[in-house]
Amino acid sequence: MSDKKIKNIFHQGPISPSFIMESIQKHSTKTDIGAHNIFLGQIRADRKDGQEVTAINYTAYEDMALDKMVEIREEIFANYPLTCLHVHHSLGMIATGEICLFVFTSAAHRKEAIDACETLVERIKSELPIWGEEIFNNGSQTWKINK
Amino acid sequence: MSDKKIKNIFHQGPISPSFIMESIQKHSTKTDIGAHNIFLGQIRADRKDGQEVTAINYTAYEDMALDKMVEIREEIFANYPLTCLHVHHSLGMIATGEICLFVFTSAAHRKEAIDACETLVERIKSELPIWGEEIFNNGSQTWKINK
Amino acid sequence: MKIKILLFGQLKEILNADFIEMKDVGDSDILMEKLKGKFPALTDISFRVAVDKNLISENIVLSESSEIALLPPFSGG
Amino acid sequence: MKIKILLFGQLKEILNADFIEMKDVGDSDILMEKLKGKFPALTDISFRVAVDKNLISENIVLSESSEIALLPPFSGG
C-alpha cells in the first residue's frame, strides 16, 4: 500500500471544509474501508497577557518535512493495516477558527484507523520541521511551542 | 457543557459528506477549539461464502437508544473537557461505500478530543440498541454481530 | 394482566412480529420461562431484556404499564 | 571552503536573515563553536542542526555541498 513518491502535504492558507468533504467523498469507491478517522487542528484564540491570538503564521523547512513524511508514512503503513492515509498542513497566515491540519486514516476496522491517526498526529507535531508564530490582536508575535 | 435535552442521533439513510462539511464549518466560530476528532463508519463490502455485502439495513430501539445516548453524553462530558460532541447514526438501507456513523468531538487540546471520540465510538457500538442486517448480492441476509 | 413485548432485530424475523403479548407474567423470570415455553426458537438465540428502556440483570416485577423489549446483540456503527 | 546555513522560525528573526554563510567549518562541532562566537544570541536559544535534511546527534564532517539548517523547536499542527 505504501508508495515512495513524495506527496506534497503543504497547503498555502487554511484547509477548507469543502476540501475535507471532497476527500471523504473520494473514499466511497473504496469498499474495503469500514472506518475512517480524521483529526483536524483548528487555530485557537488563546489569551496571553491580556492579548488574544488572531492567527498563526506557519512556515516549514519543506524539503526536509516531505522527506520525513515519506519515512513516517512508510512506518505507519508497516505498523497498521491501513487502506490509505492523507496529511495536509497549512502554510502562511491561518486565522482563529480556521483549520491548519487535516490527518485522515482509513482501514477495514476502527481500531487500526483510530490508532494510526493518533500516532500520525503525534509524529507530525514532534518530527516535522514546521513553525507557527502566534499573531496577537495588538500586533505582537510569539513563537508557538508544541506541548 | 452537558445539556439534558434529548438530541435525535438518527438519520434516515446515509450520512452525506456535505452534512459532515457543514458540521465542521459550524465550529469555525468556536475559537476555544484547537482540535477536532471525527470517526466515520463506512459500509464495507465484506465477503462471506462467496457472496458480497451490498448494503446494511439498520434498525434501532430508538427511544431506548436516545435515553442511553443522553447518559453516555453526560459521562463523556464529565470525563473529558470537551467543547462539544455530536453523534449521528443512520437508519434504513445504507449501501457499501456510504457512511452510517459520524462521531465528532472538539476540545481545546488534541488528547481530549481523540480520547473522547474513541470512547464514544466504543460505547455507541456496545451500548446502543441498534441492529444491522447485512444484505448480500444474491439477496441473502445475515444479522451483523459487533466485534 | 396482559403485557406487550417489543421485538427487535433478528427476533422480529424469528417470531415474525413487531411485538407479542403475554398473559400472567408477574415478573421477568416468569416472562422468560413462558416465552421460551411458547417460542422454543428463543432458546437458541442470545438476547437481553429491557424494562422501561433499561437492561435488566436480575428478576424484576412487571406491570401492564411496563415497556418490555427483547434485544438481540447490538450491531450498530 | 564556504558553507551556507539555512535558518528557520525564530532564528530567521534573531539573525535577521534567511541564511548565513560561514568559512572554514570542517565539521559540525567547529560550526557550532564558530556560530556561537559570531552570534552570541544563539547561546540563549534552543535549536538543532540538520545536515542534508537529517537531524544530527553527533559530530559530522561538512562539505561545501552539505545542506545545513538550524532548526528551533518544531511547532506544527
Largest sheet of chain C: 5 strands, mixed
What is the CA-based Rg of chain C, rounded?
A: 12 Å
How helix-rich are the residues of chain A, as a percent range?
25-40%
Unreliable stretches of chain C (pLDDT < 50, length at least 5) are: none
Chain-averaged pLDDT of chain A: 95
Helix percentage range of chain C: 10-25%
The shape of chain C, in one word, is globular
Number of helices of chain C: 2
- How many alpha or pi helices of chain A? 3
SS strand fraction of chain A: 35-45%
| Rg estimate of chain A, integer Å | 16 Å
Oligomer: heterotetramer
Distance between the termini of chain A: 32 Å
**Taking strands numbered 1, 2, ... along the chain, how are they ordered across the largest sheet of chain C?**
2-1-5-3-4
Q: pLDDT average of chain C, as an integer?
A: 95
How many beta-strand elements of chain A? Answer: 8
| Outline of chain A | globular
Note the run of SSEs of chain C as H and E: EHEHEEE
Structural class of chain A: alpha+beta
Let me know the largest β-sheet of chain A: 8 strands, mixed
Number of strands of chain C: 5
Report a brief summary of the structure.
The complex is a heterotetramer, with two copies of chain A (147 residues) and two copies of chain C (77 residues). By secondary structure, chain A is of the alpha+beta class.
How does this model look, in words?
The complex is a heterotetramer, with two copies of chain A (147 residues) and two copies of chain C (77 residues). Chain A is of the alpha+beta class and 147 residues long. Chain A is 31% helix and 38% strand. Chain A contains three helices and eight strands; from the N terminus they run E-H-E-E-E-H-E-E-H-E-E. In chain A, helix 2 (62-79) packs antiparallel against helix 3 (110-127). Chain A starts with 9 loop residues before the first strand and ends with a strand. The mean pLDDT of chain A is 95. Chain C is of the alpha+beta class. Chain C contains two helices and five strands, in the order E-H-E-H-E-E-E. In chain C, strands 2-1-5-3-4 form a five-stranded mixed sheet. The mean pLDDT of chain C is 95. Chains in contact: A-B, A-D, B-C. The B-C interface holds B 41, 58-61, 63-64, 67-68, 89, 100-101, 121, 124-133, 143-146 and C 6, 8-10, 50, 53, 69, 71-77. Strand 2 of chain A pairs antiparallel with strand 2 of chain B, so a sheet runs across the interface.
